[in-house]
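[Q] Does anyone have a clean structure-token version of this?
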Amino acid sequence: MAPGQAVMNIKWTGCAQQPAAHLRVDLPGGAGSVVVAFPVAAPDLKTCAHEAPLVRDPLKPTGVAWPPAPDYTKLRYSIDSPKTVQHGSTLRFFVTIHDLDSRDYSLTPCPDYTVALVPNGHVVNYQLNCAPVGVLKAAKSVTFEMKFDVLASTPPEVTSLLWGLVDGPVSPPSVQTAIEIT
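[A] Here you go.
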């Protein structure tokens, strides 16, 4: 090859249904970047459901998992709920979010949350009313009042009340507690 030319083999793995549009390669030493058309769709979307392998190639440091693991905020949830609720009524309960991390958890914008009766009940999503809190300080807790309409068609049974934040960078995503529908 002539000086200034390079060859690069690329294996495209991605989680999007849409194909890529462009490929951008940043040149070493801050020498700029090269952008080329790259209308390529990921060949196997199932790769998104697996752990990322260790990768070694000229563009990534050796022995580094790529993409890097998400940096989750460690939380713990607790539910204070009646042990029984009548179908066709409104369940009133409290959820306490405990920040177990060494850093604050920003609640701006307020995340959504899911409430469900699992496995056979309905599922609803709402936005958490957290504007008065703003930021949950590290190693602190905050409690929110919840209301959930138990449909009249919900069969009488012992089930699980599930509650969880719909916010990507938190772990774990949800908590469950047993509840009897009467």
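[Q] Thanks! Anything notable?
[A] The CA atoms of residues 13 and 42 lie 5 Å apart.
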